[in-house]
Specification:
This protein is an all-alpha fold. It has helices at 11-29, 39-47, 54-71, 79-98, 114-124, 133-148, 155-160, 164-171. The chain has one domain (11-171). It has eight helices and no strands. The protein starts with 10 loop residues before the first helix and ends with a helix. Residues 104-109 and 156-172 have low confidence and may be disordered.
């Protein structure tokens, strides 16, 4: 028997589900950067469509996580999401080690406005106790620098000491 009632998903549940999906996609996406895979294997994985959500996940994972955290009382985050965020951070750090560049971006590499720093602090204060906090801050910082065009013509990459792979890993 079909119901005429519309299916209603609460926003907090939607952000949890989308956060989880984005983070899972990012974790799998890191496999594209593994240097031990052959070119053919990478192309085969891409051809299966396993990474078709990667561009969305790269762009919006932080937003969904922060929106979920903002709505969750006392940031008692879902344990599965916390576990997945931890996996993301571990995989990120392992990949940095694997490409031979364990350095992370220097927080003062380019001038950062106090207004931005205050905004960043306010947006991320609810997750400050989580291991993923530092990575989220760095991603948002690099995105802000890019949007402000403070690091033009690759200058930001040189100042931040980022190789091509490290740029991807650090910013996403």
């Amino acid at each position: 028997m079909k119901s005429n009632a519309p299916l209603v998903i609460q926003p907090i549940q939607a952000h949890l589900d989308i956060s989880f999906a984005c983070i899972t996609t990012l974790i799998r996406g890191f496999d594209l950067l593994r240097l031990d895979d052959g070119h053919f294997e990478r192309k085969a994985r891409i051809a299966t469509g396993a990474y078709r959500l990667l561009p969305y996940a790269l762009e919006y994972w932080i937003e969904h996580c922060l929106l979920y955290a903002t709505n969750e009382i006392l940031v008692d985050l879902n344990q599965l999401l916390l576990s997945r965020l931890t996996q993301l951070r571990v995989k990120h750090d392992q990949l940095l080690q694997g490409i031979g560049n364990g350095e992370t971006s220097h927080p003062n590499a380019c001038d950062t406005s106090k207004v931005f720093e205050n905004k960043l602090e306010n947006r991320t204060k609810l997750i400050a106790h989580l291991p993923i906090h530092d990575l989220i801050r760095r991603v948002l910082h690099v995105r802000w620098l890019t949007s402000q065009q403070l690091c033009k013509n690759g200058e930001g990459k040189r100042h931040l000491g980022l190789s091509r792979h490290h740029w991807f890993v650090t910013t996403y």
